[in-house]
Amino acid sequence: MLTGLSAFFFLSSYIPLIKLDYWWIRIFDYPRFQKLIIHLLLIAAWWLFGEDRTENLLWTGLLGLGALYLFFQVVPYTFLGKKMITRVPYDPQRGIHLMIGNVYQYNRHFEKALSLIRQRDPDLVFLVETDQAWADALVPLHEVYPNRILAPLENTYGLVLYSKLPIVKHSINHLVDEDIPSVELDLKLRNGQIITVYAIHPTPPVPGENPTSTDRDAEILIVGKKSKENPKPSLVIGDLNDVAWSYTTSLFLKISETADPRRGRGFFSTFHAKVPLFRWPLDHVFLSKHFGLSSIKVLRGIGSDHFPIELRATLTAEDTADTEDASPEEEVEARAKIIKGHENQRADQD
């Protein structure tokens, strides 16, 4: 049994290196920290219970290599990692205070969400998995948030966005799948500066819903290209159904030239709210180089399987983000993933 577990978890460390979109491959992207802990426990088990010295050395060596690889995968999201974005004091005139969350459509603890939003009092609230019942329950927010984009749906991909800041223009887009909306909007900050927010919630690679990550990857990368080509300061926010350390998210950071505020600070895991042992960062805020980070925090639960996350960012006079550039090969790969996503949707429609 110990040999079988060791072989499985050793191989699971490297399965994400296979650049195929099948869900049973991509699912191994998520629990990298958990796999690291299991590797260390298995090493201890071999020393405690292993009976053959040669076998002990073989498996502790292999598991040690796996643990070292996993450590370097997750360490950028700890205090040991290099920060991608500088912390700056929050300036309400030149900044934005936002809160995002996946409410879980079948969660009916509406008052928990309302109470948290009232307590935190953000400038912008973006919630996904909002059906009509959620949209109706959140009507009390209309008094405080005069600017709203409401697209409730019954397919777990509804979304609502509330803003105290003026919405200069907006569009509800269907970037890959006609059933999956996203929002692109320009906001006017209190100092008059216009910024763009891309709010998305692509489909996850799970059996029974989407057997591959093709659509998710395409939507994430489309938004990444939009953000890079946009001369205005921009943020990409939402439940991306992908973890911060996956290859797709790393490619997105290079394609978009945005910064991940978690780098060098922590995981800020938002899912699964009800299963502490299986928890990873699925809800994201990425910032263009125009912003400095003022604060980031995972908030208390609202009855959902996700925790909401809150962030304050402030425009800076100089670029404070250490963004990454995509190589020519990565640019080609991103284009190929986007094309594949569109082809996948056309095939589904036919």
From TrEMBL:
The keyword Transmembrane applies. Keywords: Endonuclease, Hydrolase, Membrane, Nuclease, Transmembrane, Transmembrane helix. The chain crosses the membrane at residues 6-25, 32-49, 61-80. GO terms for molecular function: endonuclease activity. The keyword Membrane applies. Pfam families: Exo_endo_phos (PF03372). Residues 107-306 form the Endonuclease/exonuclease/phosphatase domain. This is Endonuclease/exonuclease/phosphatase family protein. It comes from Algoriphagus oliviformis.
